[in-house]
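Board notes (copied after class):
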Amino acid sequence: MLFNSIVFLFAFLPILLTLYYLTPKKYRNYTILLFSFIFYAWGGVSYTFILIGSILINYLFVKQIEKNNALKKTWLIIGLTVNVLIIVLFKYLDFLIDNFNILGAVFISDFSPVPFKNIVLPLGISFFTFQQMSLLWDVYRNENTEKTSLSNIALYISLFPQLIAGPIVRYNDIVGQIKHRVSSISLFRSGIQRFVLGLFKKVVIANTCGELADSIFNSSYDSLDSPTAWLGIVAYSLQIYFDFSGYSDMAIGLGRMFGFKILENFNFPYISKSIQEFWRRWHISLSTWFRDYVYIPMGGNRNGSYKTYFNLITVFFLTGIWHGATWSFVIWGLFHGFFLIIERIGFKNILHKLPKGVQWFYTIIVVMIGWVLFRVEIFSDALLYIKKLFSFNLSSEFSFLNYLNNERILVLILAIISSSLFFMKIKEILERRSLLLTKTVQTFMDLGVVLLLIISIIYINSGSYSPFIYFRF
């Protein structure tokens, strides 16, 4: 079930909200837990049993870690291994088989290829598996001093706003809210505003940019001129940002409607002036997860430069493969890891001496080249596309104009402004002065939200099926 679907907007969400607030407070968690399973089952009933089984298995590991001080490290390792095996089975098995077959054909003359298993990827498995692994780590570290319960763990893992595509929530950040949370009109109101903003970002901005990007990326790269190639990657860069941040906004907004305060996942990443800063602003819940559960346990930057570089490359190899079982994602991750190492070696010191505009230009170019590697599945095609970017050839017919119309131009302008430093400053001013806003201004803001909702619904009715990009991860 998609947040941007009619059935969710006009059936699932209103019914759940009504039943939730009619339910006595001590039973509300069970109401939202039941509807979270219904939400997940909408995408495939059979995989709901995998989700439930995964929750039960991890609950057993948690209880063993809690009560066996002498063996808790052993139980942690077993629990983490089981979670890794689950995600390998469903997400990476065919990828491993494919590479095994390639190597076998190269080195063994009479090699018989292993058949593919064609296992369908359960929705959100990368997200909820990482949440379960962080739960095991945190219980092992005794960061959660209270004993866990099955119902709390089940709701933590399956909470529908963030179940499919994040943010990746830490148990310690939300367990207090699971046990006791206070709903208010102001929190509910801000939840609606945030949800509608995310909906608009997805169905109007991301989908429009996506149509433009697809029309260029699905064409023959041999015939692309440089402006068209740049138009395509700018459109895709905006699409993936507004698609994913739009989902995160909707998840955060939905959480607020039920009294949960889910942490932010994006902070204007396209204003970054280094790749290091970009990863502090992009998919924050994932980058901090790898920092806390992989990079720091490996030693972080505490054991010399070469060990630090190895740790960074390992983390970004895993970051790439987390996104998908193809070498294009691995190359994308290693590409970012390479520039992080270059910045650590000394380039960042040089960068800081340059004008801020130059720092930003370097970063956005690197990020967009990275998005080519991310978007194009075949590496040779990605290299051809990048070559077209820097060929600087302009066709006499200005062919890039054929991909534009008034709607796309307007949305591109809106997207660029909305992801800019200028817009971030306006947002910060409004947030600081939110308590000082007059009722008249608040009324106009509410009317603006209603207008965005109406526009979004019009786009939903007139558009085609458009799942979120990160649903496939």
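Comment from the instructor: The longest helix spans residues 72-107. The chain has two domains: 6-180, 186-472.
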